[in-house]
């Protein structure tokens, strides 16, 4: 049975302050707490078995993977479909301003210059499907919304609910290929029914 270990990147100063950050060209790296989170999890037994590592384009995701793998490095495959949601005009500002706008506008609306939450979740599902083409066990490091959406799917709750659970930092969610395929298919079906 092949396993993927999916997780959100480690903490950054911006994420600790709930600042929306959706530009991969901005070199936002892990803060001291985020580095410590990765160093602690690097001792997990599954880390040495990783055959493929997939991250978003964001430096914080790639740094997380590098710190986790440490003495057991693999080449990092960058998958842009796993990138953070594009917050558009809300990028660089407090996440709550985006959250208030999202609550008023709904998950199918896109902020000026950005992307709709429903579009981003669909993109994540497509990116996760691509990850399955790589040898396992896999480490997949993405962003909060991707993990929150997976958490919703795992407990069969509404995928586009505005009150998604906050994804923890650097906490591996191990999923077999079969289970990950079920979640991807279920998410894609849910999105197609509510569009």
Question: What do you see in this structure?
Answer:
- This protein has 195 residues and is α/β, with parallel strands linked by helices.
- The chain has one domain: Rossmann fold.
- It is 41% helix and 11% strand.
- Strand 2, helix 3 and strand 3 form a beta-alpha-beta unit.
- The radius of gyration is 16 Å and the shape is globular.
Give a short overview.
The chain is an alpha/beta fold and 195 residues long.
Secondary-structure map with pairings?
Blueprint: E1 3-8, H1 13-16, H2 32-41, E2 52-55, H3 59-69, E3 76-78, H4 95-105, H5 117-131, E4 138-142, H6 144-154, E5 173-176, H7 177-194
Parallel strand pairs: 1-4, 2-3, 2-4
Antiparallel strand pairs: 1-5
Helix pairs in contact: 2-3, 5-7
Shape descriptor reads globular
**Known CATH architecture:** 3-Layer(aba) Sandwich
State Rg.
16 Å
Biggest β-sheet description: 5 strands, mixed
Tell me the fraction of residues in β-strands, as a range: 5-15%
- The largest sheet has its strands arranged as 3-2-4-1-5
Helix content: 40-55%
Query: What's the CATH C level?
Result: Alpha Beta
Q: What are the segments in which pLDDT stays under 50 over at least 5 consecutive residues?
A: none
Supply the key terms.
alpha/beta, 195 residues, Rossmann fold, five-stranded mixed beta sheet, single chain
């Amino acid at each position: 049975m092949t396993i993927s270990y999916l997780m959100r990147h480690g903490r950054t100063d911006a994420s600790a302050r709930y600042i929306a950050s959706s530009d991969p060209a901005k070199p936002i790296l892990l803060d001291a707490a985020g580095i410590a989170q990765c160093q602690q999890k690097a001792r997990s037994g599954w880390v040495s078995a990783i055959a493929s590592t997939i991250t978003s384009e964001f430096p914080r995701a790639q740094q997380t993977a590098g710190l986790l793998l440490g003495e057991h490095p693999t080449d990092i495959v960058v998958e842009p479909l796993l990138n953070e949601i594009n917050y558009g005009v809300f990028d660089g500002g407090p996440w709550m301003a985006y959250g208030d706008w999202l609550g008023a506008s709904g998950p199918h609306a896109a902020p000026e210059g950005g992307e709709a939450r429903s579009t981003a979740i669909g993109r994540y599902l497509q990116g996760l499907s691509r990850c399955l083409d790589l040898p396992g066990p896999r480490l997949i490091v993405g962003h909060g919304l991707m993990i929150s959406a997976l958490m919703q799917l795992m407990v069969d709750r509404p995928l586009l609910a505005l009150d998604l659970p906050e994804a923890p930092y650097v906490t591996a969610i191990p999923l077999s290929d079969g289970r990950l395929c079920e979640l991807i298919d279920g998410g894609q079906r849910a999105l197609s029914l509510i569009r």
